[in-house]
């Protein structure tokens, strides 16, 4: 299977990329600078220089070296520090993820591909109907500041993907943590049954994104994920 990964240099995207390669898949990664990227060299990895908001860059990635069966987008808004509470970086915009998704969907539509790829999005708990599954402190955090802006962006991505007519999976992991990959609990779209203070490791998320690519079990769904 051939993957296109957008956001493959990020903390979650890089783990999904490594997992896909470890399973013997081929991967194209759209990166801002092929000369300075920290992604490891691999015979099954092709790097295409460009930005996720550029339709022309995405169009090139869709054809290099061939059409992907699956596109994983693991983008996040860039902040001045790695803290989720930090302000947005001056070079990013409040609708960065939505703008990038519009560019991707337009590129797919105009590329005259031999088949339509499945889109897998690394979203977040709180998006869409999963809002009701968040605890009160989480709802307070995601209602204000940069985290609220990020959730609004995720919701717009959710809408765009659902209206695209493409096969999709919108993964909604709970609070992210470091650590090894562990068993992933997959909850309904609304997160019903999820624990009050759930967590999931980034490696678990990266592995599950590839699981979703290889399976049709979650197609058309937006499950909440936890350990």
Automatic annotation (TrEMBL):
This is NAD(P)-binding domain-containing protein. Belongs to the avfA family. It comes from Fusarium heterosporum. GO terms for molecular function: biliverdin reductase [NAD(P)H] activity; riboflavin reductase (NADPH) activity. Pfam families: NAD_binding_10 (PF13460). Residues 7-214 form the NAD(P)-binding domain.
């Amino acid at each position: 299977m051939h993957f296109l990964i957008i956001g493959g240099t990020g903390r979650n995207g890089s783990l999904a990329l490594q997992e896909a390669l470890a399973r013997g898949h081929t991967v194209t990664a759209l990166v801002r600078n092929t000369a300075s990227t920290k992604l490891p060299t691999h015979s099954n990895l092709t790097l295409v220089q460009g930005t996720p908001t550029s339709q022309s860059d995405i169009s090139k990635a869709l054809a290099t070296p061939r059409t992907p069966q699956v596109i994983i987008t693991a983008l996040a808004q860039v902040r001045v520090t790695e803290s989720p509470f930090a302000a947005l970086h001056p070079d990013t915009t409040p609708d960065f993820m939505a703008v990038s998704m519009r560019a991707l969907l337009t590129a797919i539509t105009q590329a005259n591909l031999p088949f339509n790829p499945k889109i897998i999005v690394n979203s977040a708990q709180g998006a869409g109907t999963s809002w009701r599954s968040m605890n009160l402190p989480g709802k307070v955090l995601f209602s204000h500041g940069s985290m609220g802006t990020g959730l609004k962006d995720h919701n717009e991505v959710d809408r765009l993907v659902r209206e695209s007519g493409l096969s999709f999976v919108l993964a909604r992991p709970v609070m992210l943590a470091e650590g090894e990959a562990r068993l992933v609990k997959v909850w309904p779209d609304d997160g019903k049954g999820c624990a009050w203070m759930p967590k999931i490791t980034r490696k678990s998320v990266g592995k599950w994104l590839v699981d979703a690519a290889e399976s049709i079990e979650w197609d058309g769904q937006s499950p909440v994920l936890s350990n």
